[in-house]
């Protein structure tokens, strides 16, 4: 019977796919919060754009920090 161990690169796949999912969640929450604040204050795209930019920067910072800690 064959050895049923997962290949070594599947561990990397899981690590990087979870990191990508975390980045998507961070950016999605930033955009969602921006849309809700814009609806509440009747300021069309202002807070959506600001929070979108900050959430992208935050997601990149999170990815770099996560990548440096695991290597």
From TrEMBL:
InterPro entries: ATPase_put
Domain of life: Bacteria
The entry's keywords: Membrane, Transmembrane, Transmembrane helix
Segments traversing the membrane: 12-35, 47-68
Protein name, per record: Putative F0F1-ATPase subunit (Ca2+/Mg2+ transporter)
Species whose genome carries this gene: Mangrovibacterium diazotrophicum
């Amino acid at each position: 019977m064959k050895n049923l161990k997962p290949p070594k690169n599947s561990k990397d796949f899981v690590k990087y796919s979870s990191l990508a999912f975390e980045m998507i969640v961070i950016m999605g929450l930033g955009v969602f919060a921006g849309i809700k604040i814009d609806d509440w204050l009747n300021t069309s795209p202002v807070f959506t754009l600001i929070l979108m930019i900050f959430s992208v920067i935050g997601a990149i910072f999170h990815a770099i920090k996560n990548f440096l800690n695991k290597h």
